Amino acid sequence: MSKFVSLSALVLILTGCGSPDGSTWLIKTSSDVISVAEVGAIWNELDQDTKIRFLSANNPVGDFITALGRKTMITTEMDNDSCLYSPMIQDMKECWIINSAFIACIDTLSASTRRNLTEPDLSNYRKLLGSVVWYSSETSGSKGPERLPDLPWALAFAFDSMATGTSVEIEGITYTLDSTVTSPREMIDETIADSARFNDFARTSLVESRVNRYLLSLKTEVLDTFTADTATVSAYCSQRESLDNSAELASWRYGSINAGEFDGIAAFVSLGQPGNEHSLEWVLHSLRNQARLTYIADLYAAEFPEEFSSFEAGAEAFAVDQASELLFKTNVTDVVQITDSMVYEAYIQMDSIPLLPETRVFESVMVPGNIVDDAIVLLDNDNALLELGYTGYTKFLRSGNEFLSRAVYPSELPYEMDLTLFLLEEGDTQWQKPVETEECLFVFYRLVEIIPPHAASFEQMEASIARNLQIHLEEQRTMEWMCELEAKHQFQVNHGILSDLPADPANWSEL
Length: 511
Description:
Number of strands: 15
Structural class: alpha+beta
Oligomer: single chain
Shape: globular
Largest sheet: 4 strands, antiparallel
Mean pLDDT: 89
């Protein structure tokens, strides 16, 4: 009998059954073994939002184990392909560090500037409020419109007592007052009537203008020594495949950027906004901007080395995410090809053609907060706002047009804007009062055209059908890829022990 028990125990151990503890394997691949306790520890390290996403599913534990197994296989794939350590990912990682340091620098400067504001600063702001100036100097060319109290006090008070067209010399630089606009006294009095609210506004404006001036001085310091090799940059834009990675595109006193490095810079920039590596102007602008960001990041690193080190640690997670995205693109997105015939076939097979709701086209101008009061004065002049030199509301601009939007639905617009725009009667083309869509950015807008509800044409449906097909086929291809990885890495889950484990994975790390 004792022999039978021993043999049974051996079989249970070998098959992974019995009473599992923390050391029992739960996930296996050809190169990794993850125990119950390790899975529990990984669960406990998840942020709350990620936990909630798993817990809201029908099978939270099973989904988490599957996701962890897939992550393990993908990490192995990244290591095998050296994807994580490719020059592109490493350059993007460096950009992430530089960008994080730049943001931290602005936050630090803003906090320090706000702490150092004095009562005389607020008093001076109150005295000078209401005037907007355009001016020029030998060092910075034409400037404006700028609120008078946002300028350095010596220059602001000089302009306040000067006639248009006259000049003044301050710290060896000659400034000429080109133009001034002053708001009506009753408007100024109304603005400063609420002292607490005015002081908050003045502090915010002073902090923003002083930080921007300091950043501009750093930019000037970098660009004074910045040189771009225009011929090499042109070759990068038109013949990238034949240009060596080591070819230097630009240099400045504190560094340089070659073609390979700029590939990573362009990829990082494109994460937040569209880029155009074939545009000479865009590449030159991006090179100058990267030189500025790098210089500021280096200054921040020298002054706050511990904080800078934390960005380097955070960049590792960013690099893993980007390497995963690159792997997904190679194995899924690039594999799925949507053709015109596939899109048209999906259109003609639709059970019914949807009725598109009313849309509207509008014209807009987006202006910074420091001139919004003066821009309001121009509402009654049809084209005056368009001549300020600012672009329209960029989120919905029609291709190739600076001010005119594409046709939009109410749900696409900020609440305050759609509430007005979709109540306007046809023919009412007056400029509307501005809406603050981002901090210190205001949109002036007016109705151009009302497009009534109508049955969708193929041209109107084409983009959404192609998008839906892409999503559907990518989902299919993702499952195929996961099956391929499971076979390649001999992926296994020890399902037999799950019923004997605590229901909450948070408790597994203590088994």
